[in-house]
Structures are given as C-alpha cells and as structure tokens.
Amino acid sequence: MVAVLSFWIVIQLIALAALPLTWHLCSRLPDRGYALAKPLGLLLVTYLLWLGASFGFLRNSLGGIVLALLVVAAVSTWLLWRNGSGAQLLAWLRENRRLIVITEVLFAVALALLAYYRAFDPAISATEKPMELMFLNSVLRSERFPPLDGWLSGYSISYYYFGYVMLAVLTQLSGLAPAFSFNVGLATWFALIAISAFSVGYNLTALLPAASVRSLRVSVLGGLLAAIFVVVM
Questions:
Q1: What pLDDT sits at residue 201?
Q2: How far apart are CA 145 and CA 139, in angstroms?
Q3: Beta bridge partners of 156
Q4: Residue 52: enclosing H or E segment and its boundaries?
C-alpha cells in the first residue's frame, strides 16, 4: 500500500506541474483537459529527460528528473502569468470541483484495483516480463541514452524503450525498488488509461448538440462507459 501511495503522490505532483499547460492547450474542451494533465505531465517530464540524456546535457538521475519537472512547471507558470489566467484557473477548479473529485476517485480506484489484482501474482516471470524488468534496471543504471543492455555487455538496448524511461522516472521519484515499481507501474498505466478514456467520453458526451444530454450526470456516465470499454471490456 505504501508503494501504491508513493506512486499516487508522484503522479499528483507531476499533474500539478502540468495542469496550467494542459488547461491552456485544452481550452476548448468542456473538462479543459483536467484528467489529461497526469499522462501529459509524465510524458513531457520524461521526454525532456530523454532528450537531455540523449544529447548529453542532462544525466539520467534524480537531479535530471527534478530539473525536467521544474522546466514543465516553469512553462505552466509562465503561461498563467502571460495570459493572466491564474484567477480563471482557480475559479474553474472551484466551479468544477464535482468533476475533479470524480476524476480523482476514478484514478485512485483504478490504481488500487489493478495493484490489488497484481498482488495475487506479483512474480515478474513468464512471457516478456523478465526482459521488461531488465530494461527497467538498465534504464535506471544508465546515465545516458540509449541505455546499456543488461543482457549484452558493451551494447545499448536495440529496442524501443521510452515506456521504460517513463516507469524509471516514477521509480526514481518514488524511491521504490524496481521489483515493486514494475507491478505498481502496471497499475499506474491502467489508471492513466482509464482517466484518459474517461476524459474523451466525458468531452464527447458534453459536446453533443442535444440540450437534454448536456448535464454533468450524463457526461460523467459517458466518460465512465468509455473507461470501462477501454480498460475492462
């Protein structure tokens, strides 16, 4: 439970750093992209780290990750300052607190449910899991990208590995051992996909032309159906 909670806190901090940016980019959506701040924030922080470590002006370390996170937060803050929209963002958060609570509860429940499911069989064995754990460990132990291959000394990983960099970012920020973060990471992807699908379903329903369906309850139902269809059905 501590491991799951640590990932939840890290994701919330990343989402907070990216929220003003997401709110600005998704200004035409009914939910202003609130749910998308989590995956977008993680994507941007990881991309900045990957870019810096690939070109040699950042180290793949906790310090490099924190610097990338601060850059994302600085861009978000600059956007609020340039547009003078800080008060508008706070007003929107107050007016849409029911939607925010629903989104956060959905994320927390999805994260906890899949972590509970994985707890019945947390072994990192069979299929590609041992290779994936090697990739995660290789990323964590490489200061530059592409990461060194843990199974082929002297060579870099010859495979797509960006998703493992994303998990390595969460691993370093949370301080978890890779064997724990591997399973909690699976639950995190599940929860991030669930709220992203929820956001798409919510926005599509809220934008329907019929006035009878433009209500919070109906839009939330559309979002929940989208989440269930994508990550469960």
A1: 95
A2: 8
A3: 148
A4: helix 37-55
- The angle subtended at Cα 43 by Cα 46 and Cα 60, nearest 5°, is 5
Q: Which amino acid is at 102?
A: I
pLDDT band at 211 (very low <50, low <70, confident <90, very high): low
Burial annotation 139-177 (CB, 10 A radius, 16+ → b, else e): bbebeebbbbbbeeeeeebeeebeebbbbbbbbbbbebe
Cα separation values, 71 from 68, 116, 152, Å: 5, 34, 35
CB 222 within 8 A of CB 201: yes
Query: What is the per-residue pLDDT across 91-135, written as a single tens digit (0 to 9) for each?
Result: 999 999 999 999 999 999 999 999 999 999 999 988 999 999 999
Q: Contact, 15 vs 107, CB < 8 A?
A: no
Rounded CA separation 53/62 (Å): 12
The 3-state DSSP class for residue 148 equals strand
The Cβ of residue 207 has, within 10 Å, a number of other Cβ atoms equal to 13
Whole-angstrom Cα Rg for the chain = 19
Segment 7-22 shows an average pLDDT of 96
- Amino acid found at 204: L
